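Allow me, if you will, to draw on your knowledge of protein folds for a short while. I have a record of one protein: its chain in single-letter code and its fold written as discrete structure tokens. I should value your view on which stretches of the chain appear to form regular backbone elements. Thank you for your consideration; the sequence and its tokens are set out here:
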Amino acid sequence: MADGKTILVTGATGAQGGGVARHLLRGGKFRVRCLTRDPNSAKSAALAKGGAEVVKGDLADRRSVESALAGCYACFGVTNFWEHFGGERQHGRNLIEAVKAARVEHFVLSTLPSAKQISKGAIEVPHFDIKAELEQYARDLGLGATFVHVAFYFENFLSFPPQKQADGALAFGFPQGDTPLAGVAVEDVGGVVAAIFDRPAEFRDRSVGIVGDDLPGKTYAEIMSRILGQKVVYNYIPRATYAALGFPGAQELADMFEFNRLYIPERRADVAQSRALYPGMQAFEAWMKANKDQFKAEAAKA
């Protein structure tokens, strides 16, 4: 270890936290302590094998977080709306208050902009708005934190793959219109966060957008078609139509895409900064090539 300083990573067995933990472990500059509700899980075992200290704790229990933060120089924090919904707010406050109590020197918190504020109340997106509230709370407490705004995961195309059509083509769609949709390979989030931990003074009290590519739906489809060797089509689905599809979270996602379409015209500057901080950042085409077989398998199931 270069200096023996310890970074606590929350959500370490999840998508963002796991990537952050792995990048920090590979970098070898810090000791890595991983907070998890289940230290005996396979993912926890893999982190321990990689050199992490795995400790039990839960963001619902502030005392357990304070215990995990003991002796830590820094912390990466992420909360999960899709598992806890409105409970995310209290989890985030518990983490922020524990960080303040522990006098952590550098706090990197995964948040998002407020759809409600930016749209002047026209659109509310709780998984954005709660994270924005948490960012403001951390700012109000004077933590000098860095806030990372992570784009749409490329991996969502595996969770919600294009559907086969009657003509044999694959098709996907959402209420994004022709506005570019910022996306990122979730593992690459860790590369940017690790770079931020290397340069704390530069990023104090700043928000950093983590984006690997910023493309219209049509371009995502063109890249998929080229790599799969099969026609893939993007369709614009109006907000109300998408919300009525009935799957869990349909209304929330419909509102998110509508917010993006109307209020986030492009994020090219975030792409440039992300690639500068982490040169290994994957563009969508590179991610598609690396995940071609899995993509085909998921699309075949759809």
Notes: The longest helix spans residues 126-140. The first strand starts at residue 6 and ends at 9.
